[in-house]
């Protein structure tokens, strides 16, 4: 990504010196603050927790998951599981969630997951599978 960004910046500089071109810009979103979750897969596996279990726990807590339907006064309603808003508003709250290992023990995600903030592209553009700019 960094090499492509550097090439895009150079293209803009070159275009700004060309009198035949005006208002040249790179389409898309720029960089922004991003939260990364780093899973120590070896440690998780050693403790009997699969990556799929970690992924499912984070997905359900941060987003939601359809579970089933039930009938309520003659109307079919969906059952959707999601962590309550006060428990998913801060990124650090994800680390307090627990995940079940193969022995049935509940382990906090903080045991094998770490958070880090970084600057990353907010949008990745591809052309025929390759990173691109437009």
Give keywords.
134 residues; alpha+beta; Multidrug efflux transporter AcrB TolC docking domain, DN and DC subdomains; two-stranded antiparallel sheet; 4 helices; 28% helix; Multidrug efflux RND transporter permease subunit
Account of the 3D structure:
This protein has 134 residues and is α+β, with helices and mostly antiparallel strands. The protein has 4 helices and 8 strands; from the N terminus they run H-E-H-H-E-E-H-E-E-E-E-E. A two-stranded antiparallel sheet has the order 1-6. The chain is elongated.
How is the secondary structure organized here?
Blueprint: H1 2-16, E1 31-39, H2 41-46, H3 51-62, E2 65-72, E3 75-81, H4 91-95, E4 98-100, E5 106-108, E6 113-121, E7 126-127, E8 130-131
Antiparallel strand pairs: 1-6, 2-3, 4-5, 7-8
Number of domains: 2
Instruction: Bin the helical content.
Output: 25-40%
> Total number of β-strand segments?
8
Distance between the termini: 14 Å
Q: What's the helix count? A: 4
**Structural class of the secondary structure composition?**
alpha+beta
| CATH architectural designation of the largest domain | 2-Layer Sandwich
Q: Please identify which CATH superfamily of the largest domain we are dealing with.
A: Multidrug efflux transporter AcrB TolC docking domain, DN and DC subdomains
**Rg calculated over all Cα atoms:** 22 Å
CATH class descriptor name of the largest domain: Alpha Beta
Output the CATH topology of the largest domain.
Answer: Multidrug efflux transporter AcrB TolC docking domain, DN and DC subdomains
Organism: Acinetobacter baumannii
Protein name: Multidrug efflux RND transporter permease subunit
GO biological process, one term: transmembrane transport
């Amino acid at each position: 990504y960094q090499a492509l960004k550097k090439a895009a910046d150079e293209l803009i500089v070159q275009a700004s010196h060309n009198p035949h071109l005006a208002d040249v810009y790179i389409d898309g979103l720029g960089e922004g603050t991003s939260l990364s979750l780093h899973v120590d897969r070896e440690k998780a596996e050693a403790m009997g927790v699969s990556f799929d279990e970690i992924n499912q726990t984070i997905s359900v807590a941060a987003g939601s998951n359809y579970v089933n339907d039930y009938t309520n006064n003659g109307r079919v309603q969906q059952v959707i599981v999601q962590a309550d808003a006060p428990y998913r508003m801060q990124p650090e709250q994800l680390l307090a969630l627990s995940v079940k290992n193969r022995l049935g023990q509940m382990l906090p995600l903080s045991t094998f997951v770490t958070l880090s903030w970084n600057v990353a592209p907010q949008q990745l553009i591809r052309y025929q599978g390759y990173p691109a700019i437009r």
